[in-house]
Amino acid sequence: MEQEKSKITAIVLAAGKGSRMNMDIPKQYLLVEDKPVMVYSLECFEKSGINDIILVVNDADISFCQNEIVDKYNISKVSKIVGGGVNRYDSVKKGLDAAKGTDFVLIHDAARPFLTNKIITDSINAVKQFGACTVGVPVKDTIKVVDTKGFGEDTPDRSKLWQVQTPQSFRYLDLQKAYQIMESTKDTDITDDTMIIERYLGKKTKVIMGDYRNIKVTTKEDLLIMTGFLRG
Ligand code: CTP
Ligand code: MG
Prior knowledge:
By secondary structure, the protein is an alpha/beta fold. Helix content is 34%, strand content 24%. The chain contains seven helices and eleven strands. The chain has helices spanning 37-46, 62-71, 88-98, 117-130, 172-183, 193-201, 220-231; strands at residues 8-14, 31-32, 35-36, 52-57, 78-83, 104-109, 132-138, 145-146, 152-154, 162-171, 206-209. The strands form three sheets. It has a seven-stranded mixed β-sheet, sandwiched between helices. The protein has a two-stranded antiparallel ribbon with strand order 2-3. A hairpin with a 5-residue loop joins β8 and β9. The chain starts with 7 loop residues before the first strand and ends with a helix. Magnesium ion binds at residues 16, 88.
């Protein structure tokens, strides 16, 4: 009998304010080489093997995103556009609620335009094999832990340090359960979903090679880097 095919959903997070970019509009809407930053990764998911995309945006931007992003750039895999929340993890929770019935989710920052088909394929293979995975890259710089007075406290072994990126991929039911447990705590230090899986389910996340180009556009200099990569 043919093996039943699992459903894979991308949750694309674009509900942030972009405060570190310090521009009039949130960074996901900035035009770089004539295209909004968020469209680059949406187009990559559109061409990939995933089944659908849930787009999470600020409540006030839902109809703008339907018209000026999804329709304009023909991102046909977007099945829902939902409003996000105050923190990134609130936005992930809203995306998860909208993704009921799927088997695997790939959570991706709309502010990472240099997603590739290889990253998506490798993530899908790894999440099917290991249950949870993130892409990342080995750090190039030495990293120091600095105390509150500004003095170096510790220098972790660089050979074990990776910078994590997105997509981060999970079994839907695992991530949903971990978020339910998290809601019963007062934790506010959560910066990504691998932390949630590790802390509340005690599960390990497989870290696979991403791409040094898969940057998160965060501050103004990142716009120059993005333009350089696009022209390069
Ligand atoms: N994000 C989100 N909902 C939030 C916060 C962030 O969907 N409440 C999204 C952002 O739109 C972005 C991704 O999560 O695509 C990564 O977050 P970050 O780079 O921190 O973006 P912002 O929060 O918008 O930027 P800043 O922290 O500088 O305000
Ligand atoms: Mg932020």
